[in-house]
Amino acid sequence: MHATHAPSSNDCSTYLATAIQAAEAAGTVLRDYAKSGFRIDYKAAINLVTDADRQAEEQIVRTILSAYPSHRILAEERGQDGSTDSPYRWIIDPLDGTTNFAHGFPFYSVSIGLEYNGESILGVVLDPVRGELFTSIAGQGAYLNGARLHVSSIDSLERALLVTGFAYNIRETPNNNLDHFSRLSLRAQAIRRTGSAALDLCYVASGRFDGYWEVKLSPWDMAAGIVLVREAGGIVSGFSRAHFSLYGQELAATNGRIHDQLLDAIHQRGSNH
Ligand code: IPD
Ligand code: CA
Ligand code: CA
């Protein structure tokens, strides 16, 4: 039976424990496939999916639904699951960074977020290669392997290390982020493209990156990481500071201090570039 009242701190701790258990089970699946090999299928020209994505997702969904059978699920490979009217929805990316994984480039993650009535209340991101577990409950801080996280204190775009990414339809759409990327390359200290949006967000929360932006993201890329950024003292928005939606595709996530500078640069305000 699911709680119909707003989740208490105890409820959230229980959900967090389940999310961690699910992420670790999926991490084991990914590590095993990385060693043993896997089949690669193509969803589109440059959009891959592997056995590891599917099996990791199975593990996560099984773990969550056996603990909370009435909860709803939105997972990348299977889509929506559960037709109940539960206020809870788990948003899952079983393998964020599939292209990296398929090439043996060791930078990918498992991402599990939880919404209550459309509000993001919890996020867990696991980097199974480095054994880094990022966890957060809304209102209770963000943590890496149990140590409290804080965003960086860099306060100018010129000194900022930024990160971004590109969607799989980069060849088909003019809204492919290349314009923002070239403009910001001339404004920031440097820009990285790691290939795992969930880890990019956790790295903003950890102060390893000062800011992140991307277009055409899916809810499962962001659902967990945005909780980490907010709880580490950062800001999450769309390309307008006042608006953010997990379903809105545009994301700007920073340490807060460079947020307006990043949005201004995206909108080509206040610069000759
Ligand atoms: C992708 C990664 C990448 C981002 C893409 C995502 P996937 O997710 O997060 O960093 O740039 O937009 O689609 O397909 O590896 O789960
Ligand atoms: Ca993803
Ligand atoms: Ca994925």
Report low-confidence residues grouped into runs of 5 or more: none
Can you write the helix and strand succession as a string?
HEEHEEEHEEEEEEHEHEHHEEH
Strand residue content: 25-35%
Discrete helix count: 8
Distance between the termini: 56 Å
Shape: globular
Helix amount? 25-40%
The overall pLDDT, averaged over residues, is: 94
Strand count, sense and barrel status of the largest sheet are: 8 strands, mixed
Ligand catalogue: D-MYO-inositol-1-phosphate, calcium ion
> What's the total number of strands?
15
Provide the spatial order of strands within the biggest beta sheet: 4-3-5-6-7-8-9-10
Please compute the radius of gyration using only Cα atoms: 18 Å
Oligomer description: single chain
User: Which structural class fits the helix and strand makeup?
Assistant: alpha+beta
Write a structural description.
The protein is α+β, with helices and mostly antiparallel strands. Helix content is 32%, strand content 26%. The chain contains eight helices and 15 strands. It has helices at 9-36, 51-67, 98-103, 178-185, 197-205, 219-222, 225-231, 259-266; strands at residues 40-44, 47-50, 72-75, 79-81, 88-96, 109-116, 119-127, 132-137, 142-144, 147-148, 161-164, 190-192, 211-214, 235-237, 251-254. The strands form three sheets. Strands 4-3-5-6-7-8-9-10 form an eight-stranded mixed beta sheet, with helices on both faces. Strands 12-11-13-15-14 form a five-stranded mixed beta sheet, sandwiched between helices. Helix 5 (197-205) packs parallel to helix 7 (225-231). 45% of the residues are buried. The mean pLDDT is 94. It binds D-MYO-inositol-1-phosphate and calcium ion (2 copies). One calcium ion binds at residues 53, 76, 93, 95-96, 98.
